[in-house]
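Input structure tokens:
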């Protein structure tokens, strides 16, 4: 069983930045692929970013490319999402997820474990 705990969400003005963290339990974190997804009110959950197991190839949805950066610290069992130049349309609950097979994917069904989510609100 893998437990994921997100933190770092909050309220920020448009153009601002936030850094989300997701701490994972377990001894084999380095073998997991990790993803970030988000869900806005009334919308389906959507893929944001993913990072494979070492060497940590990264993938982004088009709307966040150049603004968001996903990274991981295997020594701390943590994955990060640095979010810059935030826009009101980035407002959502952000979830991290783990794929124990290590294959970074945009498909939420491929992920085995999910965190509880952290709210990000961007005001205009």
């Amino acid at each position: 069983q893998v437990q994921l705990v997100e933190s770092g969400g909050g309220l920020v003005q448009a153009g601002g930045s936030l850094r989300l963290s997701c701490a994972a339990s377990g001894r084999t974190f380095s073998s997991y692929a990790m993803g970030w997804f988000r869900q806005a009110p009334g919308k389906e959950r959507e893929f944001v970013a993913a990072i494979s197991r070492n060497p940590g190839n990264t993938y982004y949805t088009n709307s966040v490319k150049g603004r968001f950066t996903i990274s991981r610290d295997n020594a701390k069992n943590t994955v990060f999402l640095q979010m810059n130049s935030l826009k009101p349309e980035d407002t959502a609950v952000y979830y991290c997820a783990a794929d124990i097979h290590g294959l970074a994917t945009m498909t939420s069904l491929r992920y085995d474990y999910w965190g509880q989510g952290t709210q990000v609100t961007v005001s205009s």
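The mean pLDDT is 95. The CA atoms of residues 7 and 109 lie 23 Å apart.
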